[in-house]
Each structure stands twice: as structure tokens, then as C-alpha cells.
């Protein structure tokens, strides 16, 4: 008996695996960037961008901090240009990315860095303003946020290995060669859960999302970029420890709370929220990432992979079900990129 | 003709000034802590706490970063204990505070630091668990978030002066001797605005608050600690640059958006939001902090003082009007500190 075949709406498995293979094929190129940066030497890393990129970098910063002593800063690109930063010096490396390659603030911050003699790295699409001006560029035209994580990990975790701080890098990178097959299985396992959540709660006007640690940036991203931007739903993202210092008072019989239980050191903070919700919340969903570990990937990499897992099941699956039930296309925007503002 | 007398609800001017004088009187004690830390030497500062304290530290981190090259980290206390931090070393200084002196996570993080031989500084109330265990303690039993800022500035900005990075410290500290009289005038100027906002919008189920730079931590705090915790109102706090990468899509004729225009380098980001709101938002409030500069304080300190100003007019005034109109006591909690969870 094989696994039960699950038909996932708006998902093309073959295309997904093909794109995954393309991203994996960029490994040598991305590692070469890390080698160059390591040889050149650097004082610290600045991860900068806007919107989804800032959110991804929030999680990546945590991953780097958990596995290396590289000083790493995550700063919104627009703020960085206006405020500057006393830790941003000629020997800093500024790392950024943009799916479209033309995000205004991201292109501007790279230009701003170049004027100051600060080296920049970008992962983006070919023949775009960003691809043209960054010092070190890797051209990747992928979808799926998990692929963004994987691409940057080939640089960031390689840097940690080169510093002698992440000796497991080779094993990690080797396991990533087949991570997309594993992620498909994770998606399939989550599919009925996604369908159920969207069916039951798509009419909610407001929902609170709670999470912590390495997936906190992604919890923020899902509320901001998917639910707010693409579905026009009012949301609140709050971290598990901060939940108890304000947002808990909103919990009542009408308020939907969605808790993401992580698989890193902060998990006890999520469990504390779970205990509270079980006592006081009527409408709640608990997504436990320990049920969605990636087959074929060593459990010791669970914290590193948890943003990839969270994204593959939410932005990658839950969003499609949300769209299906609300009838509100994920592609439709009132304002964003519709005109200048 | 003198200034028009304004009767501010739930505000005792004499008590406010008396408390202000008490906080100012702590200056030598707080500066002495800075002197000791400077002489001892340190690699970096960790600002840690939970809830309101984390929010205040978010703004203070920005102020320190704007005026000094001291490496400064702001980390939630509960996360810090579970994750540790590779930049937190024996030569770090951990700075924290708690109004009550018994905030569970804050007391625990100081204990956790001591076990690791890391020196701790706390500003808190006498005869409390926190006062008893921190290495350097200043006992201040004050209300008014502006007083929390002032207390910590006497340490943080003095440290910057000792590093030769903030030569204006003496002028700043001297002007702070009369800052509370100035803050009363600021409150009086804002009073009719606070009354109007609360009267017009106290029935809103949801409100979005937008701000940036040095007051971003405070915008977060007002939504979290006042509107959510004390008034049970659904909120979203979003920074001015991030607003354009998700939350803007929620703007319609029914959604209340409150924009705080700051007085620091990030002001153009707030102005961009203002321009957008003027075109597309029906229900909006714009609080321009340039209208509330503190009399008697040099304009060059506007960024440092803007969190104090924002707090004195919102947590200090708007909250009282909100309570007046909603009839929901700011003191009443469903869950917070009502029992263990």
C-alpha cells in the first residue's frame, strides 16, 4: 500500500520539483559567493529589504544567530537609507533580494551602498535593475518562499561553515538536494488541514496569529503579505512571549486565534500559549510544526528548516484554500503596484 | 494674557511635577552606574524585558544607535533565556526594568544572567524581587512612560558621552531638569485632540496605527498595552515603510488609520503614508509630533524626546479619554495577572 494520493488545488507537482531542482543547481554559484566574501573578510552582515524580504530576513537572522557568531543585522531598506547605521561600515556586507528585481526601496538601498563603497549581494531575477547594480548577484527566478530560504542558506550557512561554526553544512546541503520531494509530502499531509481551516474560517473579519523563534518572521509575513495584502483580512501577528503582555486580553468566544507551534528552542513559549488557548479560546487553530518535519532531512536541522516548512504549508497551500473559499483572487490588489504613491 | 487654562481629566499636575522632580533627582545615581560600567568596560549592551519594557527598549535602541556606536541588542527576556545569544558574553551588560519589580520573565532573565557571570542593571521599585538580585539597581517608583525613558537615558546617553560620542549630553541632561513643565504644556495642547479622537472613534472595533523611527516602539506599545490589554480593542501596528507592503490594502471607507508623524530621519516615510491616506482613507487621524515639541528643550534633541512626547500625549492623555468614552476601565483585565497561566 502506497501513500494515499492527494489532489492539491492549484499545485503542479512536476513544475514544483523542476523549480526546486533549478534552485538546488544554483548551490555552487551561491557557495562561491560565500567563499569570496569569506576570503575578503567582513565585519558584519546587513540583511535588508522590504515587505516579504524583511520578513524572510527576520527568520534568517535568527537562524544565523542560532548557528554562528557572525554579527547580523536585519533592517528595513527604506529606514536604513534615511537613518544610516553606525555598525554599517566599509567592511560590512549588505545582502538583499527581490523576486521582481525592481522593488523600489531595494534597488535604491543597493545604489546607496555602492555610493558608500559597501559591497552588496543580491539574489534576484535576470535583466532587472537589481541584477544590474549589485556587486555579487545570483540570478534565480523562483516562486515558493521555501526556495528563497534555501537560496540564502547556501550563502549564510556556508559562511558559518567557513568560520568553523557550522560543521554540519555539508550534510545539510546534501540533504537539501532532495528537500523538495520531502516538502511535497509535507504539503500533502497538511492539505486536508488547510482545506478545513479555510472552509471553517474564511468569513472571519479578524484573526490573530501567534508564533515565536525562527518562524516568527514567517507568521508576520503570512498575516501581512497573504491575509492583508492578498485577501484584505484584518490581522494581528504577535509573538508567543509578547502575547501575554497585551493581546491575550482580546481572547474571547468571537476571536479566531491561530497558534504556530515551532520546533526550536522557543517551543515552550508556544506551549504556554496553547495551554492558555485551551482554557480560554473558543475559536482556535493549532498548527504544530513537529507534525510536519521534512522526510529525508535530519531532525537536527528542524529549526533551520521550520521557516521553509511553515511557508510551504501556509503561503504555499493555505493561501490557495483561502482564495478558493473567499473567491478573492490572490492576484488582485487595490493599490499595491497599481500606481505610484 | 496667559495661556488658556485647560482642565485635563484624570490628571493631577502637581503630582506629575512632583514625580518628575523625583525622577530628575535620580540623575546622579543613574550617571554613577554609567560611570561604573564605562570604567569596567563592556563589549555590548543587551536591553531585555517583556511587553511595555520591550517596546520602550525598541525605541531606546534606536536612540542609542542614532547617537553612538555602542553595539546594542533588544531581545525579549523569555526568548533570550531559551535561545541564548552568541553576542551575549561575559563582557556584555544586560539592562532591564520592571515597574512592578516582579515581572516573572524579567526577574528570571536577571537570575539567568547572574548564573552566567553577566552583569545586570535594573531600574525598578524598592523591595521587589528584581531590586534584590540585579547587580546595579536604581530604585524609582514612577508612573508615566516618559519617566521610564528619562531614567534610562541618564544611563544610556551618559555612556555615549563617556565614549566621546554624545558631547551634547550635559546640555541635554540640564534641559531635562525642567522637561516635565514642558511636557505639561504639550499635554495641554494635545488635550482637545485627545478628546476629539476618543469621542469620534471609541466605538471602532479595529484600528491601524502607523509610525516609524524612534517612536515605532511606542506605536506598538500603545496598540498592545493600552488599546488591546486595557481597552480590548483589535489593533494593528505597522511601521510606515512596511505599511506599503501589505497593510495598505486594508485601507477603505470603514478602516480607521491613525498615523504618527515623527520628527526624526524617518519622517519622509510617514509623509509618504500621509499622502496615501489623504488620497484613499476616509477615517484617518494624523498626529504630527512636530506640533508637540517640548518647550525649553533644544530642537536638536527632538528625536531623543519624541518617544517621551508620544507617550505623554497617548498613554498619558489619549488613554484617559478612551476610557472616559468607552466606559471600560483601564485598570480592568480579564486575564493579565489575574491568575497563573
From TrEMBL, chains A, B:
Gene Ontology terms for molecular function: carbohydrate derivative binding; glutamine-fructose-6-phosphate transaminase (isomerizing) activity
SUPFAM superfamilies: SIS domain (SSF53697)
TM helices/strands, residue ranges: none
InterPro entries: Fructosamine_deglycase_FrlB, SIS_dom, SIS_dom_sf
Pfam families attached to this UniProt entry: SIS
Secretion signal, residue range per the UniProt entry: none
BP GO terms, sorted: fructose 6-phosphate metabolic process; protein N-linked glycosylation; UDP-N-acetylglucosamine metabolic process
Domain SIS: 33-165
Coiled coil: none
Domain of life: Bacteria
Protein name, entry field: SIS domain-containing protein
Lineage, broadest ranks: Bacteria, Bacillati, Bacillota, Erysipelotrichia, Erysipelotrichales
